[in-house]
Amino acid sequence: MFVSDRWKDYEILDATSGEKLERWGDYLLVRPDPQVIWDTQVNTSLWNKKNAHYHRSNRGGGKWEFFNLPKEWKIRYELITGDVLSFNLKPFSFKHTGLFPEQACNWDFAAKTIADSNRQISVLNLFAYTGGATLACAASGAKVTHVDASKGMVTWAKENSVISGIADRPIRWLVDDCKKFVERELRRKNRYDAIILDPPSYGRGPKGETWKLEDQIYEFLCLLKGLLSDKPLFFILNSYTTGLQPGVLTYLCASALGCKASDIHSDEVMLPVTYSRLNLPCGACARIIFS
Questions:
Q1: Pseudo-torsion of CA 22, 23, 28, 30, nearest 10°?
Q2: 61-96 pLDDT per residue, tens
């Protein structure tokens, strides 16, 4: 298991009946989670202290109910390398806050692998969202190309780099359709030592381009093989799609990237739940360290 258990400013306090109670810094949020299919006893007084509650609609989507929550606040994460990252948070559409805390284990993996390499590393971060992985790599000395189709997300990521004190690091911030960008990079013959891929199950590019993970991921991985340098360091593929389990990710990476299965470590990504002392599944991930 890949467990993000080094957080100080975030924790899942409890999870039951399709919802989880999370602490984000000083604030408690209740959000739906499709993995939480059990119905267990809860600490009612703790759940009643919530600052906001996202209610999912039976017709799709949902809406926030606020009790005492600022429009924006910050939390921090200390990487395993000792560097500290800061993130602006705010509740916005479809239950999100601007951060996927389960990805902290991958931030640590990337940061330590880069720091231990003792060479200049170029990283391509695709579907890069608000920049958690970008900041972790840049803090460890890598040159990073950050690509996301949403201008708002790229702006948010830049803000996170500023409050993390690394805005002066060599980061290229690009608003672009990830597949089209990769195709252009292949024509330009640009190469990267590490690639991080965190694709949505479904999405649209800035000009309405459609992305459906199951239909396009294999072809996309085949393209990315051509962007790896002669001495690649690592590759990370995340999946939040139910059908793409760890074993499927291993098969995909071995087939499309031509790497050895022994170089691929695929597993579930998890977050610990304080009340139950169990781990909550949050997706799957394949990590490759090239030998």
A1: -10
A2: 889 999 999 999 999 999 999 999 999 999 987 899
